[in-house]
């Protein structure tokens, strides 16, 4: 599927700002910390010399084990999602990311068209709207007009769920190519998956879809008060 060219960065790069951001009251975040016991069944994987996301998650099972891995960017977050879906079967996705690349959004659309993905909700940083408005329009058009919400975020996580699997995937990677040392944690974890999906439910319930069309000042005001 051919997607429109990604819009070039306009305006001031938020990563280059020198002013100190205002502190956000933790009272505005709701349940910001999820406390649980450290999993007793974890497998650590040094995958810096492995090339395949399939190999990275080959030991993923519904057995209480959590996989923690490091990569050098040989495979992307999208590759991991696809490899997990090959295990779980068709699934619903919730994706939280600071940014996404045209190629990776296109692959998500391919998953949707093939039935591998049954639906997808997106939570993105407000700068993504300005940097990539064409991709935002594509997401809304293909996944549904109400499929996207916006806030100030740098959290990267994905939930992959169906009747049999509740997979929580946390990563340092955005939804793009990452040719650097990156980490990921993944496991069939209904409790954690429920917590992360609950964050999506809360944001989608309280934030109107139209906020994504508002100014960054209005989005920041929402984040500081309710996000």
Q: In CATH terms, what is the fold-level topology?
A: Endonuclease, Chain A
**Largest sheet composition:** 8 strands, mixed
- The number of distinct structural domains comes to 1
Structural class: alpha/beta
Question: What's the count of strands?
Answer: 8
The CATH H-level homologous superfamily: Endonuclease Chain A
Mean pLDDT: 85
Q: CATH class, anyone?
A: Alpha Beta
Radius of gyration: 17 Å
Low-pLDDT segments: 23-29
- How far apart lie the N and C ends? 34 Å
Work out the strand percent: 15-25%
Walk across the major sheet and give the strand order: 1-2-8-7-6-3-4-5
Helix proportion range: 25-40%
SSE topology string: EHEHEHEHHEEEEHH
Features:
single chain, 227 residues, alpha/beta, Endonuclease, Chain A, eight-stranded mixed β-sheet, 7 helices
Secondary structure blueprint with pairings:
Elements: E1 42-46, H1 53-56, E2 66-71, H2 77-88, E3 91-97, H3 102-114, E4 117-125, H4 126-131, H5 133-143, E5 148-151, E6 157-161, E7 166-171, E8 182-188, H6 190-206, H7 216-225
Parallel strand pairs: 1-2, 3-4, 4-5
Antiparallel strand pairs: 2-8, 3-6, 6-7, 7-8
